[in-house]
Specification:
It is a single chain. The chain contains 10 helices and 5 strands, in the order E-H-E-H-H-H-H-E-H-E-H-H-E-H-H. It has a 5-stranded parallel sheet with strand order 2-3-1-4-5, with helices on both faces. The protein has 200 residues and is an alpha/beta fold. Helix 1 packs across helix 10 and helix 2 packs across helix 3. 34% of the residues are buried. It starts with a strand and ends in a 6-residue tail after the last helix. 53% of the residues lie in helices and 12% in strands. It comes from Blautia ammoniilytica. This is Cytidylate kinase-like family protein. It holds the Pfam family Cytidylate_kin2.
Length: 200
């Protein structure tokens, strides 16, 4: 039996989302990224706009914003409710069908399953900067700032909710440098590894 779920965590600008989408197309399986936002919103009772801004990224204020976030009488903050809703949606998706899931701490959320291939895509700074400039039509300075801000917020969210270190090789099955390997080869490696028999 091959792995049914592929999770892709990625550095901003590394092309991880694009690679994940291509892998899903080539394998003929479902692809989940921003299309889960409405479901998370429904489960949490918050607006899709709020989820889009906060479900994968920490508050802009960083780790202390989690520690001192406003909490209700159960001790839960809005961020906790978003994470819990996101967790339920990801567990449901994994139960339902083979799929590729981008980000959202899915590697950790699905850690108890033995049919998951966890991938981390990273890249070299110059290549990532060029990609961000091209995709977002910004200057180099802005691209560097966007990358630093987004990765910091992803890392803070991941580290807070998983008690693991974002980007640490031991959390993933595969860590691929898309700048050195190229997107096409990254896709091929992921597809090839997806065929390997599972061991736990």
């Amino acid at each position: 039996m091959t792995k049914r779920i592929i999770t892709i965590s990625r550095e901003f600008g590394s092309g991880g989302r694009f690679i994940g989408e291509e892998v899903a197309k080539k394998l003929g399986i479902a692809y989940y990224d921003k299309n889960v936002i409405n479901e998370i919103a429904e489960k949490s009772g918050l607006s899709p706009e709020y989820i889009q801004e906060n479900a994968e990224l920490s508050p802009k204020k960083g780790l202390f914003a989690y520690a001192f976030a406003g909490r209700d009488i159960t001790g839960k903050s809005v961020e906790d409710m978003v994470y819990e809703a996101q967790r339920k949606v990801i567990l449901d998706l994994a139960q339902k069908e083979s799929c590729v899931i981008i980000g959202r701490n899915a590697d950790y959320i699905l850690k108890d399953r033995d049919d998951v291939l966890n991938v981390f895509i990273h890249g070299n700074m110059p290549k990532k900067i060029q990609r961000i400039i091209r995709l977002y039509n910004v200057g180099e300075k802005e691209a560097v700032k966007m990358m630093a801000d987004t990765d910091k917020r992803r890392m803070t969210n991941y580290n807070f909710y998983t008690e693991q270190k974002w980007g640490k090789a031991s959390n993933y099955t595969l860590c691929l440098n898309s700048s050195q390997l190229g997107y096409d080869r990254c896709e091929k490696i992921i597809i090839e590894c997806n065929k390997l028999p599972m061991t736990k």
